[in-house]
Amino acid sequence: MAWPGMEKYQNERIIIHLDYDCFYASVVENERPGLRSLPLGIQQKNILATCNYVARAQGVKKLQLVSEAKKTCPNLVIVNGEDLSRFRDASKKLWLYVREFIWEYKVERLGFDEVFLDVTQMIDFNIANLNLADFPASVLPTCTLASNLACTNADDDKLVEEAADQGIGFFRLSLTDPKRGFSFSWGKLPGHTYPLNDALDLRVLPESDHSSQSLEDDGLDCKVHNDFHQTKHTKHRLHRRLFLAAHFADFLRNSVKETYNYTVSAGISTTKLTAKLAGSVNKPDKQTLLIPAATQSFLDGHEIGKIPGVGFKTAQVLREELLGVVQGGAPEGSSVAEVAFYDKLTHPVTIHDIRRKLTLDRLSQVLDSKEQARKLYGWLHGVDTTPVAQTSLIPTQISIEDTFRSLKGTKQAEQVLIQLVTKLITRMHIDLLSPLPTPTTSTPTPTTSLQRWLACPRTFRLSLRPRDMTGPYSARISKSAPLPRYVFARDSCAEALAGRLVRDVGLPLLRKMGKVGEGELQLVNVAVVNMEESKAGEAVMAGVDIEKVFAGKKVTAEGSRNKNDEDMDWEKEVREIERVYKMLGEKGVEGDHKLAEEIDGISNEEDTIVDGQNLGIVGVMKPIDNQIEPGIGEDLWVKADDNGELSDMDGNGTDIVPAEAPTLRPIAHLRTKSRLDFSELEMEDEVGSPSARGVVCPKCGMGVLLFALEAHARFHEMERREQEK
DNA sequence: TGGGGTCCT
DNA sequence: AGGACCC
């Protein structure tokens, strides 16, 4: 993106950092507005992930134990936030919204609730625009936010002139459409500044010591009457650019609030580091512009660990370097976790301290790489060249995890794995499948109703945290294996695929972990990684209509023929898998082994892990009429032997219970409540046996794995409807 | 202390 | 495969 004379404006970057206020709590408040006025905490296991500001006013803290929070605030409303789906969805929605405003999509996501924006080009274009003769034409009267995006008053010369006289500016959001943008008042700087606006006498501020090259007055005299802006510093280019950015940040915050009802805090500066730190100065629903000349003193006051990039370990090393090795050390024979360390509260070390006492050479010796030292040295002085990365629409990894007080043995682990992998596959569908074709009347019906995979993960990873490993923290163990292709069958239900995946890859990996896999587990995590982007993915990234890319090969004129062909093969392969699945579904759950083998033949060609017997697959989902309610209230029985245990009949941990086995008796009653929501599958465990994993269908006597229950019930419903015809 | 993520080695 | 960092 360029315009005449752009280069001479391109020196220092302008970065905005946005931070959605107590994000999880805000998501819940938007779902249930009644909670807005109440103290609200979001619970994950034993702690509050976050809480709203009403709760904070009553003494509740982030990351506090739920038990403690309840003491300090007995009327605290607590909502469980262990399932992140809604937060992830809201985060993505906000990100996509903000993204559309920023040229070249220079928008980087950090976690679910933060974004960095590099608005340098937008700011410089608008500055340049003002300097060109069209300053009056780029000025519009104030209009409401709603009409800002398509303001039609531009032609009204009188209003325009009046506006200019009143110091009203117009910020253009589009290079090509001069009407797209918002108006703002040059006379008023939105939000806060650091140092404080009142304390800030711009007239006596020294020329900025670390960006003096950009403070050259370019001669533009803004048509404003406000004293503040008639100081000499207003004439400094960097200041003017930052003021403009403050207005843009204000616009973005207001837009997000009006459109989606989320309050946002923002920091405006020239680097990611300083923008982020500046944003945390004034917090809920406020923004802060860091005045460049104050950068060093601003940074100096921060504790060393506050620098994003300086984590627990690095901060520890730096504190020890300054204060000396911790006295006493670890008692003889104590575990690593008991080693004493300098705490940031008891032994705060500031950026100032480090900057004054540790040279670059010293830092190089203390840190593990010269690069790290150079980066840190820069940060200490407000230098941070890290670019704002365009966050891809496609994640590099998708993972699901759960923690437990105690989880023992392969049997329970399998249950957990099926649950987690089912969620994982559902998430793959949400995050990796192309958006559904928009149902507009103008677009011709697409050749296929199937969504496309934007990317395909090549690897499945299982991670565990053993109950009490001797580690100061985290300590996970992980193993990976190739992800079988059949998980990409788009019309199969997540349960069925999960069952197969756990059987073929999950359990083998678990066994590969040896003793750890059978011992007590505190955490289980499943993930798909190694994303390979497809042509469809690239097209979506570029904002191109996917259907066009695939409809005519001619559209992809670029020399990427190979990649495209590979993608077509990939599509064909997945379709073939889906065809076989469909046939299997039509043949019924009796599970024609030949077909099942066919699936394995197709899908496991390249898989290194093919484990256990082929049991036939039952969980095939077929498209069915939305009107009907199959399987609701249908009774199914879990059976067990006289000891109350499901025997591992085939010795492979698969536990499909034959209906004919005379010694079996029911131990649990299952009833499908809803056909759409798998999570609502109701299970009344009558014996308390956690090992019940197979059920016998009362209709056909077929053994059905729990994960496939829903699909199985649906099969019977389809059968019934066929007979009614 | 949660349930996610990123990149580097 | 693990470690450091981020939220």
TrEMBL record:
<dbReference type="GO" id="GO:0070987">
    <property type="term" value="P:error-free translesion synthesis"/>
</dbReference>
<feature type="domain" description="UmuC">
    <location>
        <begin position="15"/>
        <end position="311"/>
    </location>
</feature>
<protein>
    <submittedName>
        <fullName>DNA/RNA polymerase</fullName>
    </submittedName>
</protein>
<dbReference type="InterPro" id="IPR001126">
    <property type="entry name" value="UmuC"/>
</dbReference>
<dbReference type="InterPro" id="IPR043502">
    <property type="entry name" value="DNA/RNA_pol_sf"/>
</dbReference>
<dbReference type="InterPro" id="IPR043128">
    <property type="entry name" value="Rev_trsase/Diguanyl_cyclase"/>
</dbReference>
<dbReference type="GO" id="GO:0003684">
    <property type="term" value="F:damaged DNA binding"/>
</dbReference>
<dbReference type="GO" id="GO:0006281">
    <property type="term" value="P:DNA repair"/>
</dbReference>
<dbReference type="Pfam" id="PF00817">
    <property type="entry name" value="IMS"/>
</dbReference>
<dbReference type="GO" id="GO:0003887">
    <property type="term" value="F:DNA-directed DNA polymerase activity"/>
</dbReference>
<dbReference type="InterPro" id="IPR036775">
    <property type="entry name" value="DNA_pol_Y-fam_lit_finger_sf"/>
</dbReference>
